[in-house]
Design brief:
Number of domains: 2
Strand order of the largest sheet: 1-2-3-4-6-5
Distance between the termini: 59 Å
CATH class of the largest domain: Mainly Beta
Strand content: 25-35%
Number of strands: 38
Shape: elongated
Number of helices: 11
Radius of gyration: 31 Å
């Protein structure tokens, strides 16, 4: 192994630096030796983090937490200087491959070595938890295999669970951990306890037994969804290991065993001169040989210097390491995994799932012919009446069962006509919302006679962006959200339509440079709505869910950089939120859990320069409708939510879509003046 550099003495604190072991997300890891000749793993943070006072505070807590952990199965922290120009931490160096590297090289371990691994990891966690700490990132790459058993690495993201140091070690809105091995509560961004480490331990043991974790999927988003919602995949795991991991992988923390209970379940492990199979022993021998070669060939003057607590430059010249420097297996890296919407990008797995069977088709069962192109449709809550909005500024109503026109509303509806409509719960009243000059106008109509009921509600707040700044109605027309036309001081005003009084004001960001986003959308309860804003500095869309009293519900939803929001809708039961967005040449459709704001599946993509106009979910939440548009026409596509497969062919010339509450039919608004009814297959 070639020594590090030839330009003179180099040190990190009191340690000589011999070689670079690897690089992590937070910095570099070097191999060093102390004044007494003991080898250590030195973790140095990147300059950009060293300049962040907030990071230094987190790193200081990391050091204090790490020093509290000791035991036969942990790589103890022996020294640190969080106040150095380049903060560093030194831990005991242990030559050996990681469990991840071992699985990559040799495949799954036999049952008895996995039981030995289970006992060692459970003991390590016992020591960690006894110090009132939670590791939070137990995974195969943080487990070393040595001649006398496993070692747990990387206490850089532990969190003190008692006392004054019990604060988060990361920025708000980030998740710490590795998706395939984190616990459900960690995946949901909830507080974690020692039970979270037990869940991760169960996942690690499954990976050791079968070569991959129990929740791994084709994309990070689906992996997280599996962690939270699905049962673990234990195919190929021996029954003796299944018995141990099943209780560890319980979704509820209270249902998991403690590490003491887990050790009792594992039982005594018989002593063995060779704890690991021959393939693992070869990897361990290779690591030791590499270290021996390095030490035998390293003259005294070839060390790296980083002065301790001096204001001079602290830049470390990159070392020249040969390919066999695979001792990167001992990297003790701070694995801060930023869980913004980048977790949605697909990642490859070892085996591709077999393609599901092709979904069934949709079929037209009826139509209504109007006198002008239809651009919007809406069913009554009992599904018996359909309202259609036309470009001649009229609203037609139709008897769905008898396939005949029921009535017509002539307004007046101004220059643009109604932009939103909603049926009352009894189906006798239709509420319309529109833009008139610089005001929003809300009117209620008797469907049977076509006459207006009462006076119009007129609220200031509109602009030339009539399509998107028009008022938005709740499902029963009882509440209207009126948007400000001032993007620099954007507001949403909520009004009680019947009482004609303001009931709330919502503050949300909105960009001045990208134009307006989609209209806000109410949930089925009439008291929840989502509005899309924009962080102009980060160039990221922010979706905020509110209640009617003006309180923000949960954390905001953040899309990818430069991903522009276009459409949004709740499922009829309010459990899901679907959003449509656009980036350059691709339309994205994402589905979110409306309560936790976690995505529930990998996003759907509509390539080919198509933008989105509308998204809608069927009553059972299993079928998704999208209306997208390109240079010439708008098109309807139906999708199976579970598989992401398109149902049937794309239907061109569709301006709008609505699902009937009966769950069996939908209506489309046609550019050719025709409103069509369709049956669609159940996605279940």
């Amino acid at each position: 192994m070639k020594p590090l550099g030839e330009s003179g003495p180099r040190e990190v604190g009191p340690y000589r630096v011999l070689a670079e072991l690897g690089r992590g997300g937070m910095g570099r890891v070097l191999l060093g030796s102390g004044p007494d000749g003991r080898l250590v793993a030195l973790k140095l943070v990147h300059d950009q983090f060293a300049e962040d006072d907030g990071f230094r505070a987190r790193f200081r807590r990391e050091v204090d937490a790490s020093r509290a952990v000791s035991g036969a199965y942990t790589a103890a922290v022996v020294d640190a200087d969080p106040d150095a120009p380049t903060p560093w931490l030194a831990s005991v160096f242990v030559p050996g491959p990681t469990l991840h590297e071992t699985i990559e090289a040799n495949g799954a371990l036999p049952e008895q070595p996995v039981l030995r691994l289970a006992a060692g990891l459970a003991t390590a966690l016992t020591h960690i938890h006894r110090a009132d700490l939670v590791h939070r990132d137990l995974k195969p790459s943080n487990v070393l295999l040595t001649d006398d058993g496993p070692r747990v690495l990387d206490f850089g993201i532990v969190r003190a669970v008692k006392g004054d140091e019990a604060g988060e070690l990361t920025r708000t809105g980030w998740l710490i951990g590795s998706p395939g091995f984190m616990s459900p509560e960690q995946a949901k961004g909830e507080p974690v306890t020692s039970a979270s480490d037990v869940f991760s331990l169960g996942s690690v043991l499954v990976a050791a037994s079968r070569g991959k974790g129990p929740f791994l999927a084709a994309a990070t988003l689906q992996t997280l969804n599996n962690v939270v919602l699905t049962e673990p995949d234990l195919d190929g795991v021996p029954e003796g290991i299944r018995r141990i991991v099943r209780p560890c992988l319980a979704k509820e923390p209270a249902d998991r065993p403690t590490t003491a209970e887990l050790l009792a379940s594992i039982g005594p492990i018989a002593p063995a001169a060779q704890p690991w199979p021959a393939g693992v022993r070869r990897l361990i021998a290779d690591r030791q040989a590499e270290i021996t070669a390095l030490l035998d060939g390293a003259p005294d003057e070839t060390t790296v210097v980083i002065r301790k607590r001096e204001p001079t430059s602290t830049k470390v010249e990159p070392p020249r390491a040969r390919p066999w420097l695979r001792v990167a297996a001992v990297v003790v890296a701070v694995a801060l995994v930023g869980f913004l919407v980048w977790t949605l990008w697909p990642e490859r797995t070892e085996q591709a799932a077999a393609p599901p069977p092709p979904p069934p088709q949709i079929a037209q069962i009826g139509e209504f012919r109007g006198s002008a192109p239809a651009w919007g449709v809406e069913f009554s809550q009992d599904g018996r009446v359909l309202a259609t909005l036309h470009r001649d500024q009229t609203v037609q109503t139709w008897d769905v069962e008898n396939r005949r026109q029921a009535g017509q509303l002539l307004g007046p509806f101004g220059q643009y006509g109604p932009r939103d409509v909603a049926f009352s719960q009894d189906g006798g009243t239709l509420t319309t919302a529109r833009v008139d000059g610089r005001s929003s106008v809300v009117q209620q109509w008797d469907i049977a006679s076509g006459h207006q009921k009462g006076e119009s509600l007129v609220v200031a707040g509109a602009s030339e962006y009539s399509d998107v700044l028009a008022p938005a109605l709740s499902q029963d027309g009882g509440t209207v959200a009126v948007q400000s036309d001032d993007f620099e001081d954007y507001r949403l005003w909520l009004w009680d339509v019947a009482g004609r009084k303001e009931v709330g004001v919502l503050d949300t960001p909105r960009a001045t440079t990208t134009g307006p986003g989609p209209r806000p959308v109410f949930g089925p309860d009439g008291r929840t709505l989502v509005d899309a804003g924009w962080d102009s500095e980060a160039k990221m869309a922010i979706l905020t869910v509110w209640d009617a009293a003006g309180a923000q519900l949960g954390n905001p939803i953040t899309l990818l950089k430069d991903e522009l929001p276009r459409a949004q809708a709740f499922s009829p039961d309010g459990a899901l939120l679907v959003t449509g967005s656009y980036t350059g040449d691709t339309a994205w459709v994402r589905l979110w859990d409306a309560a936790s704001h976690n995505q529930v599946r990998q996003p759907l993509t509509i390539p080919g320069g198509r933008d989105l106009w509308q998204v809608a979910l069927s009553p059972d939440g299993r079928t998704l409708a999208t209306v997208d548009f390109g240079a010439e026409t708008r098109s309807l596509r139906l999708w199976q939510v579970e598989t992401g497969q398109q149902i049937g062919e794309t239907i061109d010339g569709v301006n709008g879509v609505a699902f009937n509450p009966d769950g069996r039919t939908l209506a489309t608004a046609g550019e050719d003046n025709v409103v069509r009814l369709w049956t669609f297959p159940s996605a279940g």
